[in-house]
TrEMBL record:
InterPro entries: DUF1989. It comes from the Bacteria. It holds the Pfam family DUF1989. This is Urea carboxylase-associated family protein. It comes from Terrabacter ginsenosidimutans.
């Protein structure tokens, strides 16, 4: 796996969080929307009822958000990247894409996407991710999307072993012909959004990704709202 890093965003409002540098989002991108903010390197979980829409917004640009869901009526039915890829015959997720469960039921449909680059291949970052792929951290504790998903979804009775491959919104992953994966800086810009319509009652976990190298070196917040 190759992880690329371009120049980090320039800002005078940079400060340091528990796992690395973060930046404050610029103003003026909200366009009157009422949004809930997920702080850098944290996550949340909530119920999303059938027909409701979840809007995920990148407030600063170049920030990934890990999305995972299970059926509210059965915690053993969860988002399956494999079935989603299989039925679409594509690894791309964008407007019109349907997310399927491990039992082949539609869970959600993408109804709007202003970015166009997202990932269905990689699992959420975990402590083991940083231990294996970030040797510069020398095994020190690091916030992770898996921990944040497991902690917040536990409040809804979701066992950590049910959390598998996530939909990594705004993550820029591509593959060489020989199968080698590349992680480049997200192409999302401040205000880009990704909107899902729930096709069933879901328990959703959502993060502001904790892996610095997936976010062009800087961990930033994610905003979201639920409508309908």
């Amino acid at each position: 796996m190759t992880i690329s890093q371009d120049a980090r965003p320039s800002t005078t409002d940079r400060h340091f969080g528990p796992g690395g540098p973060v930046v404050q989002p610029p103003g003026g991108y909200r366009d009157g929307m009422t949004l809930t903010r997920i702080a850098p390197q944290t996550g949340t979980a909530f119920l999303l009822r059938a027909g409701q829409r979840l809007t995920v917004v990148d407030p600063t640009g170049e920030q990934v958000s890990d999305f995972f869901a299970v059926m509210d009526d059965d915690r053993d039915e969860w988002l399956s990247s494999g079935r989603t890829i299989d039925y679409a015959n594509s690894t791309a997720v964008t407007t019109g894409s349907v997310l399927y469960s491990n039992r082949s039921r539609p869970m959600a449909t993408v109804v709007e996407d202003t970015c166009g680059h997202h990932d269905l291949l990689l699992t959420p970052c975990s402590q083991q991710t940083f231990d294996l792929l970030y040797p510069e951290f020398e095994g020190a504790y690091h916030p992770s999307c898996f921990e944040n998903l497991a902690t917040t979804m536990a409040d809804f009775g979701v066992d950590p072993d049910r959390i598998s491959t996530t939909l990594n919104i705004f993550m820029n992953v591509w593959t060489e012909r020989n199968g080698e994966l590349h992680i480049d800086p997200p192409t999302s810009r401040a205000g880009d959004r990704f909107v899902l319509r729930a096709e069933a009652d879901l328990v959703v976990g959502l993060t502001a990704c904790s892996a610095e190298k997936s976010n062009n070196g800087v961990c930033k917040p994610i905003d979201y709202r639920i409508d309908g």
